[in-house]
Specification:
This protein is α/β, with parallel strands linked by helices. The chain has a domain of 273 residues.
Length: 487
């Protein structure tokens, strides 16, 4: 239970649960942007500007009465605490270019500091469409530093230590308060005004129409907790987000009791399974990599059929993280062979486009079949299928079902979310790109020209089906791999 010794505390906590944040722009000292392996986007060339702000206020935390498997979590407002954290905003320089959509990304801290994986995947569509992106340093480690959960582990610096002149005034009361911090940023994004109704902060001159929360991996665990307990649970009907994009969630969820510390994502791997509650009341798109279903995340026990508010896409042949996300870091990673080189970036862009339409009252995303799994395999005594279980793979070893990208539909490689058994721990989420014997490829493709024609046909068909965007066609075609065919 939260501390309730002060008689006035319940009143303050209840007020915090509906509080408005305040914003102050950062300008002194060195900026500490979210880590990324890719070359930074030229925002100016795209007609965008970036600014960085302190968001501060009083955030509530929650006590938990129940976390059932159907996702209908039962929470009550507990205590409250002051906070000051960072938001990074990327927006069209010309307000006339603004699409009306604001994406609020719960920045990922599994590497021990802030990262923005969904900006990495979605920036092409964000810049093209004129959306606003708001990255929130929602969790304690991003501000104060702590132990990395993935990669090589060890203690990492938070923003305060990395750039004290710029971030020295930041303070985070712990991940128990992250849910309300994100709520307050979402509330601001809906109405970017101060307490007197005057435009304020980084988007005060814009008039948003749709506000969507997005998060990948640990952040998707957090958004699972948020959807099930905060958005639709603790204060029904008062959710500030119009839709959610959950990218690569596991079967579990992030806890609610981390006061004065960061959440331990590793402990969440053994929690659950919990589905998303089906009375969420706003559109939710869940995008899962093949590698998310088994292995470390073991999301399969939380798989749920599409329903009124929830649509799930599972991307065949896709690892949790891939060469696109790693960018220039890929050449430093030795995973006993190349890491996964799947095309989830294009699927995510299409998914975002559909989600925005759905949130605006239009058509929902197209339904996708689940990836075929082998029900005959034994589990690991925890209801989790073993890594590598699949039903009837194609001749190149790729699983059937799911959202089929062109590189899987017209295969010249075996793409898998499973890690090489002798790969180091840092590779546990990176999957593999496995060469296929020439004899197998000769049985499939008579020439490069035949392969390229099939790849282009798959691209056009997937665009027509809605799993890819026509605007990405040339970029997708450029990602074909005819060099694998040497005859």
């Amino acid at each position: 239970m939260g501390a309730m010794t002060d008689p006035a505390q319940p009143t303050r906590a209840a007020a915090a649960a509906t509080a408005r944040a305040t914003f102050a722009e950062l300008s002194e000292g060195r900026s500490f942007p979210p880590m990324s392996g890719r070359k930074p986007v030229d925002l100016a060339a795209a007609g965008f500007v970036e600014s960085e702000w302190v968001v501060s206020g009083e955030a509530a935390s929650f006590d938990v009465a129940a976390t059932p498997g159907d996702g209908r979590f039962e929470l009550t407002v507990a205590d409250s605490a002051p906070y000051a954290t960072r938001v990074l905003v990327r927006r069209p320089a010309d307000p006339a270019r603004f699409s009306g959509v604001v994406l609020v990304e719960w920045l990922n801290v599994s590497g021990g500091q802030d990262a923005a994986p969904d900006w990495t995947y979605l920036s092409g569509e964000i810049l093209r469409a004129g959306h606003v992106w708001v990255g929130v340093s929602a969790q304690y480690i991003g501000v104060a530093g702590g132990e990395a959960a993935v990669a090589m582990g060890g203690q990492t610096q938070g923003m305060r230590q990395a750039s004290p002149q710029r971030y020295g005034d930041l303070h985070h009361p712990g991940d128990a308060y992250a849910y309300d911090i994100v709520t307050q940023v979402g509330r601001y994004a809906q109405e970017p005004v101060d307490a007197d109704g005057e435009p304020t902060g980084p988007i005060g001159d814009l008039r948003p129409e749709t506000v969507i929360a997005v998060g990948e991996s640990q952040s998707a665990y957090a958004l699972t907790s948020y959807i099930n307990g905060v958005h639709a649970g603790v204060n029904p009907g008062a959710g500030v987000f119009d839709a959610f994009l959950l990218h690569s969630r596991g079967a579990g969820f992030l806890p609610f009791d981390d006061r004065g510390r960061g959440a331990d994502i590793r402990s969440s791997l053994g929690v659950g399974p919990a589905r998303l509650r089906e009375d969420v009341g706003v559109p939710v798109l869940v995008v899962q990599a093949e590698g998310d279903l088994t292995g470390l995340l073991a999301a399969l026990p939380a798989r749920q059929p599409d329903s009124e508010w929830i649509t799930t896409w599972e991307i065949a042949g896709q690892a949790h993280a891939d060469a696109f996300q790693l960018g220039r870091f890929t050449r430093f990673v030795d995973c006993q062979g190349p890491v996964n080189s799947g095309q989830q970036v294009f699927v995510l862009r299409a998914g975002l486009s559909h989600l925005i339409t759905w949130a605006g009252g239009g058509a929902r995303p197209p339904a996708a079949p689940p990836i075929e799994m082998d029900d005959d395999n034994d589990d690991d005594n925890a209801g989790r299928p073993p890594a590598g279980s699949s039903a009837s793979p194609d001749e190149c070893g790729n699983r059937r079902g799911g959202v089929r990208t062109p590189i899987v539909e017209a295969p010249v490689e075996h793409l898998t979310g499973d890690v090489h058994p002798e790969a180091p721990p840092m590779c546990m989420l990176l999957g593999r790109t496995v060469a296929v014997d020439d004899e197998v490829l000769r049985g499939r493709w008579r020439s490069r020209e035949e392969y390229l024609a099939a790849y282009a046909e798959a691209t056009d068909r997937l665009i027509a089906e809605g799993f890819l965007l026509a605007e990405d066609r040339e970029e997708i075609l450029a990602d074909a791999r005819p060099e694998r065919i040497t005859w």
